[in-house]
Write a structure and sequence with these properties.
By secondary structure, the protein is α/β, with parallel strands linked by helices. The strands form 4 sheets. It has a 7-stranded mixed beta sheet with strand order 4-12-11-10-7-5-6, sandwiched between helices. Strands 1-2-3-15 form a 4-stranded mixed beta sheet. Strands 13-14-17-16 form a 4-stranded antiparallel beta sheet, with helices on one face. It binds pyridoxal-5'-phosphate. Pyridoxal-5'-phosphate binds next to α5.
């Protein structure tokens, strides 16, 4: 039951400096009190279909009582105790064991964090540590893609390839380099005669490695599908080329599975669809469906061997107070069991196909909607000035999303794109509500 006073809460909420803050954005805040499946219920009496699963992460859907019970039981036993070497707890041991070989057969070791940004920093430091131990201490630079998003700690922000996150915060840290994003719809890099987008973007990566000097480059980090950059699926063949380049120049490949992981793309991991076999895979979000903050990295057995064989005075001195948080890990294990038991990968694929078909129908119907794309339940469209020019129209994308919200649908505008990533438990009827509401919102906002 919702009994809170919206006006009073809005006033109290003014005390928060929210993430991604600007005061204009806190007006008419959607104050969520309750959730059930794909639905959110707000303090001011609205019912909203959340086609973004909050921040791409509530994979099993809202209001799951099983996970609440698991957290409750675990907290009664031991909610938290230190995970620093020499101490541990059953849930973190059990989850690490469950994840052994789960990402890739040659990855059997996990380090836990509390979220995606910490995972990015952990991946970067681990790559640097690896090269240091192999006597290549100059290999510290990190290459990432433009419009990639890897989080908001200082290193993660620097790996993120969008200047709107850099400019006001002192820019990008030294040693972080951004390369072209192989967006097949609108490639912004240099395309030479006869080159495909995948080849051009891969060339940009290789040129960056050569320009910096391979002896200084530790790792390349990439999302299998870019999420916060606007649901960008790389041009076909790109990852094959990028992996070969990384191998050639001894550059570790870090796959950022923070959004794609745990069923979002219809497989367990985004890497599965693109034949990516990375050295490090980082995760967060869907591992607990947002019921607890948890993230981590998986490393290859080879990297773990290097960590294990380091002299004690060069230990892998990295970790967080909440690494291996007992209640979070218990929830993570139970969440993975639910994804498996409830067939949510298959539902992600089937409902993803229905969603994409619906988005393609919107492309056919509206002159300003184009480039429907998606995999599993991660999808996007572009709002354009015209299909011929492919010039994006962020203003209208914003207006369409606002109109959709007024009609009870939460979709996320990202520049000219509108993104969709609903909970994986979504039904066919609920997918149809997304499409029908979007149709109405486009009509209202584009007129
Ligand atoms: C691909 C990716 N990596 C890292 C992060 C950062 O995760 P967090 O916000 O949990 O720190 C995000 C967040 O959206 C993400 O999408």
């Amino acid at each position: 039951m919702i009994a809170n006073d919206y006006a009073a809460l809005v006033q109290q909420d003014e005390r928060q400096l929210h993430p991604m803050y600007h005061p204009s954005r806190t007006e008419n805040a959607v104050m969520v009190e309750k959730g059930d499946g794909v639905w959110l219920y707000t303090t001011d009496g609205r019912k909203i279909l959340d086609s973004m699963a909050s921040l791409w992460n509530v994979n099993i859907g809202y209001g799951n009582r099983e996970l609440a019970q698991v957290a409750y039981d675990q907290m009664l036993d031991i909610a938290y105790s230190s995970g620093f070497a020499g101490m541990t707890n059953p849930p973190s041991a059990q989850l690490a064991d469950k994840l052994a070989g789960f990402f890739r057969p040659n990855m059997n070791f996990t380090n836990f964090t509390s979220g995606g940004s910490e995972s990015t920093d952990t991946s970067i430091k681990t790559a640097r540590f690896y090269w240091y131990q192999l006597g290549k201490a100059r290999k510290t630079k990190i290459i990432s893609r433009l419009t990639g998003y890897h989080g908001m700690t200082l290193a993660a922000t620097s790996a993120t390839g969008m200047s709107k996150f850099h400019t006001m915060f002192g820019g990008v840290l030294e040693g972080f380099i951004h390369v072209a994003n192989p967006n097949p719809y609108h490639y912004e890099g240099e395309l030479r005669d006869g080159e495909s987008v995948a080849q051009a973007a891969a060339r940009d990566l290789e040129e960056a490695i050569l320009r910096e000097g391979p002896e200084t480059v530790a790792a390349f980090i990439s999302e299998p599908i870019q999420g916060a950059g606007g649901v960008m699926i790389a041009a076909e063949g790109y990852f094959e080329l990028a992996q070969a380049i990384c191998k050639k120049y001894e550059v570790l490949f870090i796959a950022d599975e923070v959004i794609c992981g745990f069923g979002r793309t219809g497989d367990w991991f985004g890497c599965d669809a693109f034949g990516i076999n990375p050295d490090i895979m980082q995760f967060a979000k869907g591992v607990t469906s947002g019921y607890m903050p948890l993230g981590g990295i998986q490393v290859t057995d080879e990297i773990r061997d290097v960590i294990n064989s380091a002299p004690e005075d060069q230990s892998w001195m990295h970790g967080y107070t909440y690494s291996g948080h007992a209640a979070a890990c218990a929830v993570g294990s139970a969440n993975i069991d639910i994804i498996e038991r409830d067939g949510l990968l298959a539902n992600s694929s089937a409902m993803g196909e229905r969603l994409l078909n619906g988005l393609n129908a919107l492309v056919d119907e509206f002159p300003n909607i184009d480039n429907a794309r998606g995999l599993g339940l991660m999808a996007g469209i572009d709002v354009v000035k015209s299909k011929e020019s492919r010039e994006g129209d962020p203003g209208t994308a914003e207006k369409i999303s606002e109109a959709a919200l007024e009609m009870g649908l939460r979709a996320r505008p990202i520049g000219p794109a509108i993104a969709f990533a609903p909970p994986l438990c979504i039904s066919a009827d609920e997918v149809d509500i997304i499409i029908n509401t979007m149709g109405d919102a486009i009509t209202r906002a584009s007129g």
